[in-house]
Amino acid sequence: MLLADDPAEQDSLMLAINADGTLKMCQEFLALPEGVNRKLINVSSVGGGITAFPGFRLADGMSKAAVAFLTHQLAAETVHQDVDVFAICPGATDTPMLQASTLNKLTAEERAVFCAQLPKKRLIEPEDIASVVHFLATPASRVMHGAIIDASMGLGSRPGLQTEFERS
To answer: Rounded to an integer, what is the distance from CA 42 to the centroid of its chain?
Structure first.
């Protein structure tokens, strides 16, 4: 289900939700009274946060790049405060959004090919990303303050993997 039928309005909503929504959330979080071992964990995407994927929706990549930039900026500004700031950049994760935007449009055979082209030949499970969040929420992650974490199983390191697979 789309929030808008007009592509320009969809782009504006994507930027408002992903970039402006994250900015407002971060501002509210940082305005809270300081506590011990505070963690600000943003979610960006491998597309925009780590690398570019030609042909993908520009507003999506822009909004995710904005989250990564915001994370870098806030990490620089809070380096002497008792807060750690991170961004996680997942790849193709089996979520309702990916189902609706991509997977539901594919036949069973097309979906099998899609997954075979991904790193590790599978979708990332939400639990995989939850494990990264869990680690970042611990004191052990303190040395990683400011990290933009590629959680794409290698797609950020080799973004052409899917198109390479098609040529082989």
So the answer is: 8
